[in-house]
Amino acid sequence: AGFPPNAGTFDRVLKPRAKDIPVSVALEMVEFMEARGVDLQPSSVNAVMAVCARENRWQEVLALVDKEGQGGIRVTLDEVGLNILLDACRRGGQSVRATETIQLMRRQGYHTGVRTFNFAISACAINGDAPRAVGLLDFMTATGLKADVVSYGAAMKACMKAQAWRRVVQLLDEATDEGVEPDIIMYGTAMSAYRKCGDWASALDLLTIMKQRRGVSPNLICINTAISACADARQWKPALALLEAMPSMKQDPDAITLAAVMNACARGGEWERALHYFDTCRVEPSVVMYGSAITACGKGQQWERALGYLGEMLSSHQWHPPSTLICFNAAISACAAAGQLGEALNLLETMQRDHAVVPDIVTFSAAISACEERGEWETALDLLETMERDHAVVPNVVTLSAAVSACGKGGQLDA
């Protein structure tokens, strides 16, 4: 009949094979022992958790630890197992569970070093739990540990996801004050935060600091973020200066760079300059670049040119609905700005019929604005009804104002 299985047998069978055994087999072995009421030794639990972690199966790690609470086998975790659990929390963004695990480890007297705290802070970064991330960072320094690049980088990422832009840049300052040398990820995160705050000048300052520091050179992502910050603020001159300085930073512009530069020019009233960059670029135009070019056409009331760019984009077979929607919206806006109501309405129909692109609030606002220019109040009200009835799009202030203005210009103020 053989000997009944026990925890020691399980441990001897599993541990030597933990590097190669599939997750499914390891979990089946756990179920086999559970069915016979055998509790697992900490080393066995560690081995099973390591198998799951090896294949990024963090859900199974958490489920294994939860078995005890569900009336299954008793799972006792040692320091190694708790660190594996923390890593699973990190991968799954389980910030609450990670914080509780840190507290448990400290109560049980286990070592909680920088790496342990970094697992927990990284879990907060995954799901944007900024309060816990900053709390863990403060707690680890209060215990005498020195936070490192990973600690601050993860806390900054958590704040970024939580849209706590100012806290992101404060953490960068705190890191440098504590003698931590920021890496390119930290600088890039702070630069993105400055962009969200509309602080384009500070984004450029960070880029300058990076150029002056040894070991950290601005990469293409950082440069694109800085140019985009300039574009958001209609600062076309600094955007062009960055573009021209890219060779000195040993970086070549890509489609994202050029689209951002074009946006900066268009928003800064330099629509002709924006189109010049599009027409003379040496990279394959992306859908985003086409969108920027069409937007620039709208600024210059070049509606025919806008339709030409839209046609090029659609024939390039590189389009996909989200980006294509932006291009159609820009083209409809260009037609509206030039008083081309018929073309605007034709685009609204074409995008749905021929390209399966669903209009949004921007689409209808642009189309109704085209009606406003011509005083076509009946069409404006029809569009208002269609957007709510057929597309469940709720009108905003811009849409309603354009519709009211169309009624006014059509002599229908009581409509």
From TrEMBL:
> Whereabouts are the PPR repeats?
148-182, 183-218, 324-358, 360-394
The record's Pfam families line, in alphabetical order, gives:
PPR (PF01535), PPR_3 (PF13812), PPR_long (PF17177)
For this UniProt record, give its keywords in alphabetical order, as a comma-separated list. Answer: Repeat
Using the record's annotation, list all stretches that form the PROP1-like PPR domain: 107-282
Keyword Repeat among record annotations? yes
Q: Is Chloroplast found in the keyword set? A: no
Q: Which PANTHER family match?
A: PENTATRICOPEPTIDE REPEAT-CONTAINING PROTEIN, TETRATRICOPEPTIDE REPEAT (TPR)-LIKE SUPERFAMILY PROTEIN-RELATED
Full protein name: PROP1-like PPR domain-containing protein
Species name: Octactis speculum
Organism lineage string: Eukaryota, Sar, Stramenopiles, Ochrophyta, Dictyochophyceae
